[in-house]
Design goal:
With 290 residues, this protein is mostly helical. 70% of the residues lie in helices and 0% in strands. Helix 2 (36-49) runs antiparallel to helix 3, helix 3 packs antiparallel against helix 4 (73-86) and helix 4 runs antiparallel to helix 5. The longest helix is centred in the first third of the chain and has 14 residues, at 36-49. The radius of gyration is 23 Å and the shape is globular.
């Protein structure tokens, strides 16, 4: 079932701006003009909105030099972290998040964004620590519960992952990602009936979403229910014809069931869509030279 994680990579959008940012004081109503610090920050935010990231970064750093002790610097550091992350400077982004959290310890938006970055960098233990901190403050926080469950699932902490998914479903019985995750946890934990029941519920609730069909196809494949698996792979690809993961999964299915011509067709399409040579070789049943 490892290949099913290809269709369960469900990082959520960043929530930093909605939880961290606040209007900057501008002195209006008191006959006072905005300070140069405030103007720099506003110009930087406008530059970010225009996707002028280099200009925005330069203006934010000027603002820090102008007023290194300003209360609004938590917002400045958080924006600098966002820019560094978007431009591929992950270590720098982590340092910017550290600076922001030093000014506003425990801020959930910052913790969630840093946790997401840690996950992108492959540091699951640090991400888990940030999600735990969020959940210590807000035990029902949906995003933190979902991502902690995902990490625990990857670390084979199935009982703990199940508890998080079930808590999410208590809050929202129709939570799609929680249903998908719980189905996979149950399948990995040798609870085949519960796994199939949960994934089918997800499909019934979201019949136009591809992920449920792809995950159920993988389960059916493992159970040697080949006709059902082929139908579900077909449905997933019908909904998302350019999904590389689905093409590779079905190619692997065709390879294992000795239908090489069909496997080659999916491999060809997957390669065109950007699958790596190693992924292509694996789906085609070829050994990759190291």
């Amino acid at each position: 079932m490892k290949h099913l994680f290809l269709v369960l990579f469900f990082f959520l959008p960043s929530t930093l701006l909605s939880q961290v940012t606040a209007p900057l004081p501008d002195g209006r109503g008191k006959g006072v003009s905005p300070s140069s610090y405030q103007l720099l920050v506003r110009q930087a935010v406008t530059a970010m909105e225009d996707d002028s990231l280099q200009l925005a970064e330069r203006l934010f750093k000027q603002a820090l030099k102008e007023s290194p002790q300003a209360q609004g610097n938590v917002i400045v550091w958080s924006h600098l972290a966002s820019i560094a992350e978007r431009t591929g400077r992950e270590a720098e982004a982590l340092e910017d998040y550290r600076q922001a959290l030093a000014l506003a310890p425990g801020t959930m938006g910052l913790l969630l964004n840093r946790a997401s970055l840690y996950l992108k960098m492959g540091n699951e233990s640090r991400a888990l620590a940030d999600y735990n901190e969020v959940l210590d403050k807000s035990p029902d926080h949906a995003e933190a519960l979902l991502m902690r469950a995902y990490i625990r699932q990857r670390q084979h902490l199935l009982k703990d992952a199940r508890a998080d998914y079930q808590k999410l479903l208590q809050q929202d019985p129709t939570h799609e990602q929680a249903l998908l995750g719980l189905a996979l946890v149950n399948d990995n934990d040798r609870r085949p009936h519960e796994a199939m029941e949960t994934i089918t519920r997800a499909i019934d609730l979201y019949p136009t979403h591809a992920a449920g069909y792809a995950i159920r196809a993988g389960m059916e494949f493992d159970r040697k229910l080949y006709e059902l698996a082929e139908a579900d792979y077909g449905k997933a690809i019908e909904i998302e014809p350019e999904n590389v993961s689905f093409r590779l999964a079905r190619a692997n299915f065709y390879t294992k069931t000795k239908r090489k011509r069909l496997a080659r067709e999916d491999v060809r399409i997957a390669a065109r869509l950007g699958a790596s040579p190693a992924e292509v070789a694996g789906a085609a049943g070829l050994k990759v030279k190291k």
